[in-house]
Write a structure and sequence with these properties.
Layout lengths: L1 H26 L2 E7 L3 H8 L4 E9 L8 H5 L6 E8 L6 H9 L9 E2 L2 E2 L5 E5 L2 H16 L10 E4 L4 E2 L7 H4 L1 H10 L2 H9 L2
Length: 200
Amino acid sequence: MIKRWFAIALLTLLTWLGPVSLTAQAQDLAKATFAGGCFWCMEKPFDALEGVVSTTSGYTGGTKANPTYKAVSSGKTGHAESVQVEYDPSQVSYEQLLAVFWHNVDPLDAGGQFCDRGTQYRTNIFYHSDKQKSLAEQSKAALNQSGRFATPIVTEIVPAGTFYPAEDYHQNYYQTNANLYRFYRFRCGRDQRLAKLWGE
């Protein structure tokens, strides 16, 4: 009888502590938001980082509430195709996320990215805190001063606003439509331009 009572008490305690533990873990996670042209191509490099919990393609930086892909693609809503990264700061730093961002965009292009043209394909770093803002500005300044580029970086660092997840068929596109993703990426000249910019 005592053993049975102890088992019930232990189970009750674990049930009560479980959600608290999960909530604590969720509270330890941080968010980072980047615009780097087509969001399909920005999920994969962040997903490859240990410590990144999830990436979500979406729209931010505009004025229209609940925008659709069609509306954003018109270039009239002010949104940029973006990726929101949820990560564990104890495993991956914001500086590492910034490095991945820079090496996957053309920061000199003010008219879009690669074959995709228009403000909806601009590059932006959307900061969620003063610390993120400071680190982003430092990384941009360091690149500008590195002598790597002949012209200044045009990527703007701006406050994060409302982020609207894109339609389901856009999420994890590089996994769910691998062949089409590779074809698009090649035809868009993304990797060729990145190799020229970053030597990789």
